[in-house]
Amino acid sequence: MDSAVVLAIACAESFACEAISFDYGQRHRFELDSARLVAESLGVRGHTVLPIDMCAIGGSALTDDIEVPKDRPDIGEGIPITYVPARNTIFLSYALALAEVKGAWDIFIGVNALDYSGYPDCRPEYIEAFERMANLATKASVEARESGESRASLRIHAPLAQMRKVDIVRKGAELGVDFALTHSCYDPGAEGRSCGRCDACRLRLKGFEEAGMKDPLSYLA
Fold first, then answer.
1. φ and ψ at 158, to 5 degrees?
2. CATH class name, domain 2-211
3. pLDDT tens for residues 34-43?
4. pTM of the prediction?
5. 3-class SS of residue 115
6. Domain definitions of the chain by residue range
């Protein structure tokens, strides 16, 4: 849901958008079908799906034989087992590589640091640090600065970073996002129905409830 709203924001700001998704061995691979539908609905120029074997690393309930926590009373406190080691760093690195090849200077990511599960790679200070690194590590940025180009820095946009889920839902509705195409659940059923009990489901449902809207997805619980 967050990524769909971010894509809608970028499109509304007149960026020519290319979407990127990752098949990293996540147990909720159903989200890749949703990503394709969302990308098509928002009219992106292209949609790249990159395979990454993060199951070989493991260490997360999303990529290893570890049970996904359900009905946690303390969402946002501590770092849960659904944290995937270095996931956003890996994702942003691939996005950075694609951006450099495409000649793009802007990368959008749907991280959120208010109503979220406590992941360290969703915080604004992390995004700022990655942006600084990106401008030191890419040929495009270095050569642009050396040549004195007016646009000599790559930007990482995280427009949802300081938004609550209710605000994300409202923003998506304002921009015409079809939430029925989106997917959030960490542990969906065989046909993709959301569990309704993992952190991602509960935060999503909380956002819709506080916005006074009905979530169009079907839930197992």
1. -130, 70
2. alpha beta
3. 999 999 999 9
4. 0.93
5. coil
6. 2-211
